[in-house]
Amino acid sequence: QDPWIPVVCEYSEVFLEDLPGLPPNREIKFYIELVPRAQPVSIPANRMAPTEMEELREQLDDMLFKGFIRSSTSPWGAPILFAKKAEGSLRLCVDYRKLNRLTVKNKYHLLRIDELFDQLGGSRFFSKIDLRFGYHQLKIRGDDIPKTIFRTRYGHFEFLVMPFGSTNTPQHLWIS
């Protein structure tokens, strides 16, 4: 038996299955810096199958309840789609490709995997951390919230936490 199981069981409140709501205010916030003279881009909602519409309603209700999103009238807008996760559930994805083309790319580079392995050389102990809903643990700077709008048949919504799929999100998560 794994010797860590009793420790995990004893401190189970630290290992949340889901985020209860908005993250606390932090010094670092996600931001979207646009290229000069960028204009809002708006793309209509994609057509969805009835099962996807049902899943969308459930995920929207959950994100609204947690405060991750809110209704919006922003002139920006991106369509959504679903991607199937390994275990079969559906992940809501916002197609930010048009917004990403207008976003200034962050100059902070993530470490290369071979460099990380070099740093691990000679180590005896390793650990792994999985930030559940990592992107949703960082709030968005107020002026940039309207740029995250996504369009659905149920309405238009904007993120209050860092969305999956926007340029520079991995770097923001890394430095935060």
From TrEMBL:
Gene3D superfamilies: HIV Type 1 Reverse Transcriptase, subunit A, domain 1 (3.10.10.10). It holds the Pfam family RVT_1. It comes from the Eukaryota. Transmembrane segments: none annotated. Residues 84-171 form the Reverse transcriptase domain. PANTHER family: RNA-DIRECTED DNA POLYMERASE HOMOLOG (PTHR24559:SF447), TRANSPOSON TY3-I GAG-POL POLYPROTEIN (PTHR24559). This is Reverse transcriptase domain-containing protein. The lineage of its organism: Eukaryota, Viridiplantae, Streptophyta, Embryophyta, Tracheophyta.
